[in-house]
Amino acid sequence: MSTVPLPRSPLGPDGPADRLRGWYENELGWATVPGEPVRLLVGECFDVLEVPAEAGLPALRRLAPGTPVAVLGDRMRLLVAAGGAEEVPGILRWLEWGALPVDLRAIGAGGLIEAPLLPTDRGTEQDHVQERRPGPNGPGPVQGAAVWMRPPVAGREAQASLPTMSALGGVGGAPDLVRLVGTLATHCHRARLRRASAQPLAFS
Fold it and tell me: Rounded to 5 degrees, what are φ and ψ at 163?
């Protein structure tokens, strides 16, 4: 079955939002929705796993070097293959997390995320991607805006590096997505325990 390519924005954008939208649509082939701020449509080229940044950082080793990762405030967004969000509840049950709440949000088909700002170091990007860890004043140059920690590279098939249920890797041959979700759930739980232990005891 042939697929119809997504409509591409006209070249020569007038403002920052148009330039941002044009980069995503024309350089990466990712769909955006009308309006500002620029938002990306989830579920066609990728799904998103969103976790606290402190839980996401230890999970980066589960990702291929070119897998895009964004940060918004104290939250990290890791891109996975389209359809991956639907698998997360089943994976958590299979890993015996059960109904234990984890601070892990899966965004799939029909979802929207704010488009991270254009990578600031596009001129120096090579086949590898620099990691930028969140600092005390925010994760990037603009406070409160989504930024790329590991940006997608224009002209490459970013989707090929995304964790998926069908990809095998690592010890035991577990699918990449299963290993990633397990790692994220573990570190979300640990982060929640650390926050709970840091709370002062309440006496009545």
Answer: -60, 140
